[in-house]
Amino acid sequence: DWTPGNIADDAIASIREKVGTDEVILGLSGGVDSSVVAALLHKAIGEQLTCVFVDNGLLRYKEGDQVMATFAEHMGVKVIRIDAEQRFLDALAGENDPEKKRKIIGNLFVDIFEEESNKLKAAKWLAQGTIYPDVIESAGSKTGKAHVIKSHHNVGGLPDYMKLELLEPLRELFKDEVRKLGVELGLPYDMVYRHPFPGPGLGVRILGEVKKEYADILRLADHIFIEELRKHDLYNSTSQAFAVFLPIKSVGVTGDGRRYEWVVSLRAVETIDFMTARWAHLPYEFLDHVCRRIVNEVSGISRVVYDITGKPPGTIEWE
Ligand code: XMP
């Protein structure tokens, strides 16, 4: 019968049988799926696994360091961290269109991942965090914007340049099963039950052109929002919550005088399937507190708004 322990044991046995003494590479993103694959493979084949973590500079507050702390320092997984912030910023410079931004980010990720995997000449297998819903989704459509990265090279095999065999140990699992497996494998609960985060990251939460200044401001505001949600026990009752950077300036006034600075919107939704969603009716006092903290603590922000658009007619992300 189905228990996370059984699933883990079976998966480990079948990975060992398949892979033997071969080397495996995995693109680690910090998301739930690739994290669970990393933990699983580490348990199954230890040193034969090398993870490549591409830090695109569009991650959340201290996220890159957390990925390294959890996997490299804590668990002893071999992780190569590629600091690619400048390459992503350069590639995105001057681009305003949301879908083009997504393509730029997805393509550059694949390029960098390819560069790194080519250096790991001994690798025979490419592991991926494909889960059952990805398999279904990709069978129906090749144009869905979700999972841009994954769809580059998981469904229907690999592009020619990657002469690696695919290893997809989560292919038959649903998200809740993947999470239980992650906890079973010893991953931190908060990591495994984290809200989803889009592949293009802050790239689609900074409206229009992406700039480092905007990303740095947004990370701080987003961090305050999430930290307060957790503190007030509201994180788990919302399905997804984040801040969005609006590249417009607004006048404000504080003790120091007049400010003319950027605006952020807070977004929080409740949903089962992410296809439709209701905006989270967070308590006014809570929103008031978060707004005050953001304006007081994040230099560069003079105003905070709250998004009260459902899906439909809105999407969850702003781009
Ligand atoms: P929307 O904005 O379409 O989002 O209502 C629905 C869910 O999908 C996530 N999302 C993405 N995930 N790449 C991803 O990996 C993307 O380009 C992307 N766009 C949206 C979004 O965060 C939400 O959970």
Automatic annotation (TrEMBL):
<keyword id="KW-0315">Glutamine amidotransferase</keyword>
<dbReference type="GO" id="GO:0005524">
    <property type="term" value="F:ATP binding"/>
</dbReference>
<keyword id="KW-0067">ATP-binding</keyword>
<comment type="pathway">
    <text>Purine metabolism; GMP biosynthesis; GMP from XMP (L-Gln route): step 1/1.</text>
</comment>
<feature type="binding site">
    <location>
        <begin position="29"/>
        <end position="35"/>
    </location>
    <ligand>
        <name>ATP</name>
    </ligand>
</feature>
<comment type="function">
    <text>Catalyzes the synthesis of GMP from XMP.</text>
</comment>
<comment type="subunit">
    <text>Homodimer.</text>
</comment>
<feature type="domain" description="GMPS ATP-PPase">
    <location>
        <begin position="2"/>
        <end position="194"/>
    </location>
</feature>
<keyword id="KW-0547">Nucleotide-binding</keyword>
<keyword id="KW-0332">GMP biosynthesis</keyword>
<keyword id="KW-0436">Ligase</keyword>
<keyword id="KW-0658">Purine biosynthesis</keyword>
<dbReference type="GO" id="GO:0005829">
    <property type="term" value="C:cytosol"/>
</dbReference>
<protein>
    <recommendedName>
        <fullName>GMP synthase [glutamine-hydrolyzing]</fullName>
        <ecNumber>6.3.5.2</ecNumber>
    </recommendedName>
</protein>
<dbReference type="GO" id="GO:0003921">
    <property type="term" value="F:GMP synthase activity"/>
</dbReference>
